């Protein structure tokens, strides 16, 4: 990842863990931009899964 600052350009090497975390955040951002909720759960193998949740409001009288 290359970051531009007002004075200099900084090259940052990200670890695999940080790359996975950024992918999770991007997935969550994409889902919430569509107006749905994002749900994050840990799988049995320790990885995280992001689910898109669409809730419907139903009026009950």
Structural notes for this entry:
With 61 residues, the chain is of the alpha+beta class. The protein has one helix at 16-33, and strands spanning 2-4, 9-11, 37-42, 48-53. A hairpin with a 5-residue loop joins strand 3 (37-42) and strand 4 (48-53). It is elongated. The N and C termini lie far apart (54 Å).
Output the keywords.
61 residues; alpha+beta; two-stranded antiparallel sheet; 1 helix
Topology:
Layout: E1 2-4, E2 9-11, H1 16-33, E3 37-42, E4 48-53
Antiparallel strand pairs: 1-2, 3-4
Radius of gyration (CA) equals 18 Å
* Average pLDDT taken over every residue: 84
Shape: elongated
Instruction: Report the sheet with the most strands, covering strand number, pairing sense and barrel closure.
Output: 2 strands, antiparallel
- Structure class: alpha+beta
Q: Would you report the number of β strands?
A: 4
Helix content: 25-40%
* Discrete helix count: 1
Strand content: 25-35%
Strand order of the largest sheet: 1-2
Cα-to-Cα separation, first versus last residue: 54 Å
Order of helices and strands: EEHEE
Low-confidence stretches: none
């Amino acid at each position: 990842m290359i970051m531009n600052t007002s004075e200099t350009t900084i090259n940052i090497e990200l670890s695999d863990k940080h790359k996975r975390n950024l992918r999770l955040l991007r997935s969550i951002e994409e889902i919430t931009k569509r107006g749905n909720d994002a749900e994050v759960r840990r799988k049995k193998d320790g990885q995280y899964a992001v689910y898109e949740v669409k809730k419907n409001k139903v009026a009950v009288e």
